[in-house]
Specification:
The chain is mainly alpha-helical. Helices cover about 80% and strands about 5% of the residues.
Length: about 140
C-alpha cells in the first residue's frame, strides 16, 4: 500500500511539474529579444518596399542579436521544432543582410517573407496570448 501511495504522489508531482514547465513567462532577455524582433517585423515590409537598404542593414543586426538569444533559449529546453524555426529565421536574416548589401529588392523580399514565416510558425506552436495582452510560452 505504501508503494502505491509513493507512486501516486510521484505521478501527481510529475504532472504538476510538466504543467509548470509547459506554460511559463519567458525570461527578461527572451522578452527583450522578442520585442526587438517585433520592431523589426513592424518596419520590415515598409523598408523592403521603399528599398531602404540602410534600414534593412540595421534590422539585420538587431534581428541577428535577438535570434541568438532565442536560439539559446530553445536549445537549453531541447525543443527541436523551435530550434529549427530559430535556425530558419537566422538564415533568413543572413540572406536579408546580403540582399541589403547587394541592394537586391528580390532577395530582400524573399528573405523578409522567410523571416516572417519562421517567426509565425514558432509563435503558432509555442506562444499563447493571455487575457491581459501579455504572452507566455506554451
Amino acid at each position: 500500500m505504501r508503494k502505491w501511495a509513493v507512486l501516486v504522489t510521484s505521478g501527481i508531482v510529475g504532472v504538476f511539474a510538466l504543467a509548470a514547465t509547459a506554460a511559463e513567462k519567458p525570461s527578461a532577455d527572451y522578452q527583450k529579444a522578442m520585442r526587438d524582433l517585433g520592431a523589426v517585423a513592424q518596419g520590415l515590409g515598409k523598408a523592403v518596399q521603399a528599398e531602404d537598404y540602410d534600414t534593412l542593414t540595421k534590422y539585420t543586426a538587431s534581428a541577428k542579436a535577438a535570434l541568438e538569444v532565442a536560439l539559446k533559449f530553445w536549445q537549453s529546453k531541447k525543443v527541436e521544432d523551435a530550434i529549427r524555426h530559430a535556425d530558419n529565421a537566422t538564415t533568413a536574416v543572413a540572406v536579408l543582410g546580403v540582399s541589403a548589401g547587394l541592394k537586391s529588392q528580390e532577395g530582400a523580399e524573399a528573405a523578409a517573407k522567410d523571416l516572417m514565416a519562421a517567426c509565425a510558425a514558432c509563435h503558432t506552436a509555442h506562444r499563447e496570448k493571455l487575457p491581459d495582452g501579455t504572452f507566455e510560452i506554451k
